[in-house]
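During the no-cost extension, the postdoctoral fellow (Dr. R.K.) reprocessed legacy sequence entries with the updated structure-token encoder. One reprocessed record is reproduced below for audit purposes.
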Amino acid sequence: MQRHRKVSLLSATAISATAMIGSGWLFSAQLNARLAGNYAFLAWFLAALLVLAVGLCLAHVVAIYPVRGATTRSSSLSHNAIFGMPFAFANWFGLIISVPTEAQATTEYLSAYIKNEILMNNNGLTYNGKLFAMVILLFYLMVNFYGVRLLSKVNNTITALKIFTPLFAITLFLITRFDKSNFSLASNTIYNSGSAINAILGAGLIYSYNGFQLAAAFASEVKNPRKNIPLSMICSVLLIMFVYMALQFSFMGAVPKVFLSQGWAGLNFHSPLMNLALILGLNFLALLLTADSLVSPTGTGYAYLGASSRMFYAMAAEGQMPKWTISKLNPVYNICRRSLLINWVLVAIVLWNSQSWATLMLIVSGYYILGYMAAPISMGALKPKLRYFGACVFIPLSMILGTIPKHDLLIMNLSLVIVMSIYGTIQLTRKTSLKTLIILTGPFMMYLWLIYFDQRPLYVASVALLFYFFITTPSYVRFCKENATNKVSLEEEFIH
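Re-encoded structure tokens follow.
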């Protein structure tokens, strides 16, 4: 008899909220101020609006298919596994890369605190630093190994600590020093609404908000998912938006004028919140921030590892990964441990071959955007009456994608070409025709390359609009369904 229990609305909200207060919050206030000035608040609002819109699209899909790993699986459910492969890969791979960034962040913060180069030097982790980060990854593994019940128990406690620390920092900054003239600097005239749009990706706002979708990854393990998943997304995003905007306000008001001689663009604290606390003489806050720099990334890291293992399970169930990579769910802990272990090994490999948190953040955010695109596409295909709402979500995602530097966009496009070439070759051996493969995979790949070669906003919006309405037309969706190569029975995963 199975002993696992369903996750409550509170726990589902806590899982998402915890993931949204990871390593990003310790840097985002400064990065956002540098890129957007006073428009930083608009950037936080627009980013929250964007992820909420994506979350509502995903909630419509989950209402029809409340299955494990729904975030990765949505386009496979609405179209088929071949069409859904690039979205699934982007969503899953984005989380895979995120897990080591959190372990790296913890190691870097600890290195700064002990003021020793044993863990980090020359802006990169040392051999000892990487070994220490591996130990952190082992902790992530153990929290997830015993299922969502242990994860939710650990997570609820950590969420309280992660919410308390930013609120405490905000309060102390506002009490200790608040200079309203910081918001009327002459240099603020260089910023406009376009600065806010660029900051959504460049300042790590998408990276910071990304945890909003984690509740959907646990769809089959949440009580009443049709109601609780959209509620948990909305509650968690609004809560974290309030925290981030309050932090932005208190941070910008507390920075002494001497550091703003070149405006916000010239502000360059190495550890922004900690440096500011020390400048203001808030030594206790600096100590608390050091402790939180260990807790916050850890809470995000183990949540992302759990979500990525569920996404990987879903991809294997849809025939997008080899069947041997999954096994039956553990009857006690309701988790596929083989999938979890494979994901952990991949995470460890990424960690060992990367140097620092900063080197991965932007490209991770790009993969997140690609993964988000599956939600409005799937919703528009499953619920044709909502196609116009889906287009209103898909076009802004495309325009944000167009702000990625060409070099990083090239890496993303090439990685998808390589993955799809390998996957397409496998499908050809399974008697899928070349013509069918081109029809199923060609539109999205063409869309990505068209954006790469010309990133002007109006052009990107036009390409996105044409692409979206083409792939959500009933005739194209019907073609995908008729050529599904892996008709998986999902009934046993649905929530009744």
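DSSP finds 21 helices and two strands in the chain. The beta strands are 120-121, 124-125. The remaining legacy entries will be reprocessed before the final report is submitted.
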